[in-house]
Write a structure and sequence with these properties.
Elements: H1 2-16, H2 21-28, H3 36-44, E1 49-53, E2 63-66, E3 75-80, E4 84-90, E5 96-103, H4 111-126, E6 134-138, H5 150-156, E7 162-166, H6 167-178, E8 187-192, E9 196-202, E10 205-206, H7 238-241, H8 243-255, H9 260-269, H10 274-282, H11 286-310, E11 314-318, H12 326-339, H13 342-345, E12 349-352, H14 358-374
Parallel strand pairs: 3-6, 6-7, 8-11, 11-12
Antiparallel strand pairs: 1-2, 3-4, 4-5, 8-9, 9-10
């Protein structure tokens, strides 16, 4: 029982930050005296420490219980996205201490260069510290060269527990800890990037599905005879609204002379990328505005079904394509509210991520801390 209670104490501190002993007892549903022995053992092991003094509630101010400072124990999180790798060091409360972001699109499938580049970034962030655990979040369309990164990381940090999680699920964990879903147990996180993926949090628990692949809505066929998708089928949602599909549509419109802003960017750079679309959208470019509106409408039809099934209180949009912002959000909301069951939609919020790319890193860090707790805790 004590071992189980140790783990639950650490999970509460991870998810809520420093807590007083009274707050911990209330959250765990046990008498405060029951925590005396587990907290003493955790303190002796260096797994918790005295934190800041809590705000006064009218009586004597209490010292909180906190996770170790990053100088004593650090967790490593990696976000492997379509074009960038982000690496961060976090403390046990999932506060990002330091991090770097590197562009890897020019490395292609060069395994050796990819591995060396990522390991250099890891060394830069860790500064000769050994991580207590590593969490890796990967987008479904991340480069193939990412696949073998776990091996070199495990070899470099021998015996360090590691955890892998899809980017959308990491985003959900991060948004619940520090973003637009704070304090919400029932919500859907949607990541818009190289593919459309989502994660459903129900009753505070992530749904992974029977095969572990729940949320891959990008390969839901929305038009039987639509454009070809990278999966080999036609008419998938990704074929219309993934980052590459949007760039392809924008490029075609630029060649046709429908957007001077995009045509100038195409002439200047030789090719368009998502950043060009986002920049053009901020100027009110009609082509990008229409692409964003079409995206919102197509995605809204899919999410209306998700809302009918999962009954979330909030939908949070993140990922690179979510940077298109207002036009996307407006048509998405209109479509979902029009098509979803009325009694489920009336209390539903649809919002953009509050923490952006950090959500995935925080979620990967959360999985790292979980691996450390489940693995028996070590690595100081």
């Amino acid at each position: 029982m004590t071992g189980e209670l140790d783990g639950e104490v650490l999970r509460r501190l991870r998810d809520h930050g420093p807590l007083t002993r009274t707050q911990l007892a209330q959250q765990l549903g046990v008498p405060r005296t029951t925590l005396a022995s587990p907290l003493r053992q955790l303190t002796e092991a260096g797994d918790v420490r005295d934190g800041p003094v809590a705000a006064s509630s009218g009586g004597r101010r209490s010292v909180t219980v906190a996770m170790p400072a990053p100088a004593d124990r650090v967790f490593l999180a990696l976000s492997l996205a379509e074009r960038r790798v982000r690496v961060a060091a976090l403390d046990g409360h999932l506060t990002i201490e330091s991090g770097v972001s590197i562009d890897v699109q020019d490395l292609g499938d060069d395994q050796a260069s990819m591995t060396a580049t990522v390991l250099r970034a890891v060394d830069q962030v860790l500064r000769d510290r050994r991580p207590a655990a590593i969490g890796v979040a990967a987008a479904g369309t991340a480069p193939v060269a990412y696949v073998d990164l776990a091996g070199p990381l495990a070899e470099r940090y021998d015996t360090t527990p590691a955890a892998a999680v899809p980017a959308a699920r990491a985003m959900a964990l991060g948004e619940r800890r520090a973003g637009a879903a704070r304090g919400i147990d029932d919500f859907v996180a949607v990541r818009l990037g190289g593919s459309v993926t989502l994660a459903t949090m129900s009753g505070g628990r992530l749904s992974t599905g029977g095969s572990g692949h729940a949320g891959e809505v990008g390969h839901l066929r929305v038009e039987e005879f639509g454009p070809a998708c990278v999966c080999g089928l036609t008419g998938c949602l990704d074929a219309f609204v993934s980052a590459s599909a949007l760039v392809a549509q924008a490029t075609e419109q630029a060649h046709r002379g429908r957007s001077q802003v995009l045509a100038d960017a195409l002439s200047r750079n030789g090719a368009l990328d998502l950043a060009d679309l986002v920049a053009a959208g901020r100027t009110g470019d009609p082509v990008v505005v229409q692409l964003a509106r079409d995206l919102g409408q197509r995605l809204g039809k899919v999410l209306a079904g998700v809302v009918a099934h999962a009954d979330p209180l909030r939908v949070v949009l993140g990922g690179p394509v979510a940077a298109l912002g207002a036009q996307l959000l407006g048509d998405l909301r209109t479509t979902v509210y029009r098509l979803a069951p009325a009694r489920l939609a009336e209390d539903l919020d649809i919002v953009l991520s509050e923490v952006g790319d950090h959500a995935v890193l925080i979620g990967a860090g959360s999985e790292a801390v979980e691996a450390w707790i489940a693995g028996g805790r070590s690595a100081r």
